[in-house]
Amino acid sequence: MTAAPLDRPEVAELRLSAFAGHRSAVLPLGPVTLIAGPSGSGKSSALRAYAALGRLSAGEELADVFADPVACVPERARADGQRRRGFRIGCTVDGPAGAVRLDLAVQAEPELRVVGERLTLGPLVLLETALRDPSRSVVQAAWYTGGNAQVTRGPLPDDRLGTALLPLRVAGRTDGQRLVLAAAEQVVVALRSAFACDPKPGLMRRPLPPGRVGDGRLLGGCENLAAVLWRTREECGNRHARLVAEVRKGCAGRVDDVLVTEADDGSLHAFLDRGDGVRTPVGRLGDGELRHLALALVLLTGPGVLEVDTVAEVPAAYQAFTVLGDRFDRALDRHQLRALTALAGEMCERGHVRFVGAVGDAAGAVGLDGVTVVDLERDGT
Predict the structure, then answer these.
(1) pLDDT (tens digit per residue) in 254-300
(2) DSSP per position, 139-191
(3) pLDDT exceeds cutoff 60 at 307
(4) What is the DSSP string of 309-320?
(5) Cβ-count burial of 49 within 10 angstroms (0-12 exposed, 13-18 middle, 19+ buried)?
(6) 45: closest CA among 75, 70, 64, 21?
(7) How many Cα neighbours within 13 Å face the side chain of 370?
(8) pTM for this structure?
C-alpha cells in the first residue's frame, strides 16, 4: 500500500545562503520543479548543492562530496584574518515531524571542514554545532534533550554531517531525544535517495561490453542503458509497454517496441523495432531522441533500478526518491521537454518520484499541472 503523502518526507526548500554564484537564494521545491535561467545563472550549482546534501546525509565525508570546495565559495567572498573562506547551504524538509530546517556552514580554505550546523523545528534548536578549537578535528555539538537537562553536549567530527550521526549519539530515552531523532531521520530520508542524472548520448550509442553490464542498475550518465532496458523488459511488461508509448512521443517514425539483443561476444545492443522486421540501432538516434528515451526510463523506474543509495532500514513506501536532472532540456525540442515534464508530473502525482530539473527555458512546461518553475533571472534568487 502506498504511504499517504504526509508520511513521506519531502524537501520543500533549498537554501543557498552563500554558494558559488548564489547569495541568499531560496528555491521552493514542489513535486516537479524546473530551475530555469540562462547560462551562468547558477542552475547546475543549485543541483550540485542538493546532491551534496544528499551525499552528506548518506554519511559521506566532506572531501569526497566537495572535490573542489573552493569552487563552491562565492567569488567575491573575502577571507577573514585567518585567511578562512567558506560557503553555506541548507534546506527545509516537510514530514511527520513538521517543517525541519537544516543549515550547514563549511570552511573551504585553508582546509575543508564543517564549522557550523543547525537543525531546527520552528523556534526549537534540535542540534547546533560550532568550531571552537581549530587545532582539533571536531566541532562542539549540543542537541536537545528536554527534561531536567535541556541539552546534551559532546564532540562530533568536523568532516561529516552531524545530523546523519545523531542516531549513533542520541539514546532516545526522553521525549526531547525522540523528537531530535525523528527530525534527523526525516531530513536524512528525504535527502539521501537522490539520483543525479545527465544522459550522455555519446556513451549510450556504444554497445555495452560484457564486463560493463553490472547489476542492472542505471548509472547517472545512462551509459549502461542497454542492460537496464533488458532488465526492465523482463521484469515488468506493463512498465515496458508504457516506456514504449513514451518513446513514441520523443522519437521520429514508427516505434513498435524497444528491444535488446545479446551478441555472440556477450555485448548488449539496443534497438527500436520499427515493425515489418526493421530495427534501428539506438546508435543511429539523434541526441534528443536518446536523451528522451533515457529520461523516460528513469522516470518510469525507481530506486531499485537506478544507482541510488536508499535507506535500508526505512520501508520504501516512506522514502522520498528525487531525480536531479542537470541540463534536463539539453538536445530536447519543446515537444520532447513537455512530454517528459508531463510524465514526471504523472509519476510524482502517484507518489512514485520527485523531480528537480535545470532548464534554460521552461516555456515548454507552461500550463502543466503541478510544475513549480523557479526562474533564477526573474526571481533574483
Answers:
(1) 999 999 999 999 899 999 999 989 999 999 999 999 999 999 999 98
(2) EEEEEE--SSS-EEEEEEETTS-HHHHHHHH----SHHHHHHHHHHHHHHHHH
(3) no
(4) ---TTS-GGG--
(5) buried
(6) 21
(7) 16
(8) 0.91
